[in-house]
Write a structure and sequence with these properties.
The complex is a heterodimer of chains A (114) and B (112). With 114 residues, chain A is an all-beta fold. Chain A contains no helices and 11 strands. Helix content of chain B is 0%, strand content 55%. The chains are: A mainly beta (114), B mainly beta (112).
């Protein structure tokens, strides 16, 4: 089954403790991206990747890092999480540039930073 | 970047009725997409309509696009309880450096 898998689905942690949210897709998609969803603000793009070793900032990249060492994986790294990063995070992938094609979303990761 | 804005923010109708949601955006686009999000889940792609198309159908869904008015509508016919969800429009300029820009969504409630 074609899918985007995120882990963990839920995480409560404390300020400053480094964490990684993993994302994996099995559709051989070149494009992957991370979004955060906050009430009243909708979905905002954090980072995206057009291919292996090619990543770029989205609209709200501050406080986040990503890497794309393999085509299928696109982890999101919070080196020093802060409470304002409490949010619902989504990973997505698409066959070609995001603006041309539908995106496939994971089920989300709800992060709470205390 | 351009942004889709959905209207209304919330909509409650009876099962069996039709639901219409609207989306407006600001700048020229390559395509416009509609997504559905069930509570606590990821977004699911519904329909993509390109800028040179005016109308598209998929099952009980009908999407229209008016590029002169920079607006789109999503019509769900014969609504069901399972259609209860949030619906988002997203605009794409088509460039590799530009992603999709999502609106804030319309929350649709279908009353049994």
């Amino acid at each position: 089954e074609a899918q985007v898998t995120q882990n963990p689905r839920y995480l409560i942690t404390v300020t400053g403790k480094k964490l990684t949210v993993t994302c994996s897709q099995n559709m051989n998609h070149e494009y992957m991206s991370w979004y955060r969803q906050d009430p009243g603000l909708g979905l905002r793009q954090i980072y995206y990747s057009m291919n292996v070793e090619v990543t770029d900032k989205g609209d709200v990249p501050e406080g986040y890092k990503v890497s794309r060492k393999e085509k299928r994986n696109f982890p999101l790294i919070l080196e020093s999480p802060s409470p304002n990063q409490t949010s619902l995070y989504f990973c997505a992938s698409s066959l070609s540039p995001q603006g041309f094609q539908p995106q496939h979303f994971g089920d989300g990761t709800r992060l709470s930073i205390l | 970047s351009q942004q889709g804005e959905e209207d209304p923010q919330a909509l409650s109708i009876q099962e069996g009725e039709n639901a219409t949601m609207n989306c407006s955006y600001k700048t020229s686009i390559n395509n416009l997409q509609w997504y559905r999000q069930n509570s606590g889940r990821g977004l699911v792609h519904l329909i993509l309509i390109r800028s040179n198309e005016r109308e598209k159908h998929s099952g009980r869904l009908r999407v229209t696009l008016d590029t002169s008015k920079k607006s789109s509508s999503l019509l769900i016919t014969a609504s069901r309880a399972a259609d209860t969800a949030s619906y988002f429009c997203a605009t794409g300029s088509g460039g590799g450096a530009d992603g999709l820009t999502f609106g804030k969504g319309t929350h649709l409630i279908i009353q049994p």
